[in-house]
Amino acid sequence: MIDIDLLKTFMTVVQCKTLTEASEVIGVEQPTVSRRIKRLEEQLGDVELLKAYSTGLILTEAGQYLEQHASNIYENVEKLTADIREIQYGASGELRVIGENFCRAFISEYGGEFHVRYPTVFLNVRAEESKALTYAGQLNGAFVGLTGLPIPNNSLFIWKELGKAEFYPYAHKSYIDKYGLPETFEDLDCHNIFRYEWNNAYTDYRDDAKNNPLLYLGRKCSSPRAHTAIMDDTVQCKLLIQNGLGIGTIPKYLARNTEFIQLFQGLYDPAMSIGGAVNLVYPAYGKDNAKIRAFRDFMLSTLKSDISKTWLQNHSFK
Fold this sequence. Notes:
Helix content is about 35%, strand content about 20%.
């Protein structure tokens, strides 16, 4: 009998192509990964599944055959587990929500409303496990991913691009009362502006004029405005706005239920700024899982007004 945990390790190694990267994804030492592959080979009759070369690991013929069929084995086992729990519990119990900063900010804004609507489902937010979404075999049970990671090729999970979390300029009412309302982009010369400098997770955002449009609008590109504070996180920007310290751009969902004033309405185009793509990720068996469908339905009914017009255009579970 094949140990499903050893099969998960094998699938991760195949996708990572090196034992080192696979060990990082799984969270164990490299020798442990090697031992798991060896035990799997012994369980299959002392076959050889992988060969190591200077360029990386190569599948043997037996390894290729197992890789072709392992996804079905894994999916069937996970679907059986999920179906059994679904029969007993229905739309209740734990739902893991996996993602990076966007996911954490989303739950902080909408988690209370989700609980009111689905009081028997509790969310287990995992903001440090988003990389696992790109490696099938490391996630099981009832989970969804809410992530800005790019859609990988040949994933065993279902990925749907939901839309973009567009950025808009905001200031708190207390700031406007003290410093006045800027009516033109040129008026920003007399205001406190927050600047983004993204960390390594956002290396694709290299256009400073799109990262920080408020520093450039109404100015020559070679002469941006001075900034008041620098940050690499939208939640931190929200807190500074909340404290009345200046003007910043944040996704619209972060401004809900606040005294924030959206600036330059009818003048500011969100295309001037970055827009973070948001993807929903779930296992193939998840389309029939009540908790996952509850999460999906909640997003459909709640988020449309807080995200871009393209949000959730393609939302059917197929």
